[in-house]
């Protein structure tokens, strides 16, 4: 039988019932001094189609704990952590998750993933948590490659559209810009 422990003091009580229905109990106190951390996603060796990733997992979370993934501060909530937009380079990447307690005790886990390149589209928010009502600005950025048919006046290989669209959740547009660059 596995019994999950929390960081700090844990009291375990075992009760035994005899065939005559009499019972006997014994209690033992166990102190967990090592932070426990599990990475749930991404899987080790995963192939990621993009240049950033959401890393999540579980932990024993006493008060004043912190989690970072490759330097990105994770949100910690009710025994779970989420680090969004962890940057990846094309090819092999190591994700290093560090879980630090208030007393400086730390646990580290690593995951290896492979990135196939840039995200065609990325949505970011200027706030991930907060009290209601929460005002959040969303930014949609990306790059697309669109093949064009060659013309007689120019030999255009491709058109690259870069766009940056920002919008407040209440509906007012903050920024919208688009630029098209042609390459010969």
Notes on the protein architecture:
- The chain has 2 domains: 1-119, Immunoglobulin-like, CATH 2.60.40; 120-184, no CATH class.
- It contains no helices and 15 strands.
- The chain is elongated and about 70 Å long.
- Helices cover 0% and strands 60% of the residues.
- Strands 4-11-10-6-7 form a 5-stranded mixed beta sheet, with no helix packed on it.
CATH architecture of the largest domain: Sandwich
CA radius of gyration is 25 Å
Low-confidence stretches: 146-184
CATH topology of the largest domain: Immunoglobulin-like
Share in β-strands: over 45%
Mean pLDDT: 75
What's the name of the CATH homologous superfamily of the largest domain? Immunoglobulins
- How would you describe the shape? elongated
* Number of helical stretches of at least 4 residues: 0
Derived structural class: mainly beta
Distance between the termini: 67 Å
How would a textbook summarize the main sheet? 5 strands, mixed
Helix content: under 10%
| Lateral strand order in the biggest sheet | 4-11-10-6-7
Oligomer: single chain
Write the H/E string, N to C.
EEEEEEEEEEEEEEE
The CATH class of the largest domain: Mainly Beta
In total, how many domains does the architecture comprise? 2
Quick summary:
The chain has 184 residues and is an all-beta fold. The chain has strands spanning 8-17, 23-32, 37-41, 46-48, 52-59, 66-69, 72-73, 75-77, 80-87, 91-100, 106-115, 121-125, 137-147, 158-168, 173-183.
Q: What keyword list fits this structure?
A:
single chain; 184 residues; mainly beta; Immunoglobulin-like; 4-stranded antiparallel sheet; 0% helix; disordered C terminus
